[in-house]
Sequence to fold (130 residues):
Amino acid sequence: MLNFKMSELIHSNKAIEHNINNMPDINSLDNMLDLIFYCLQPVRDKIGKPFDISSGYRNTQVNKLVGGKTNSQHLKGAAVDFKIRGMTVTAAINAIKNTGIEYDQLINEYDRWVHISFVKGKNRKQNLKY
Ligand SMILES: [Zn+2]
Fold:
């Protein structure tokens, strides 16, 4: 069973606020499916707690408005920001590492949320903290 919807990864408060159509292109949709199927859902299944997603896909305009990096993996639908309900960011990061599930980058962003990305066949398994 899937706990995630594509719409959750497309939704952006910033896009709505600025009346921007944040619909992903076809390649980003493929990346988002890979991210959900091979990374996000398997992690969710192992941890067994709800994820609150704050940002998934972002087009160039939305990414600029939220202060994202120009090479952000969110632009390709390959990254998602979230919190795991009832867990600190550090605890969530440790729990994700312990699942052994493959990812490209796992980032503790300012102790405010978890950023995870997935690039099929090219995962670097990098752990970073901003
Ligand atoms: Zn992010």
Notes: The mean pLDDT is 97. Residues 74, 79, 81, 115 surround zinc ion (CB under 6 Å). Strands lie at 51-55, 79-84, 105-109, 113-117, 126-129.
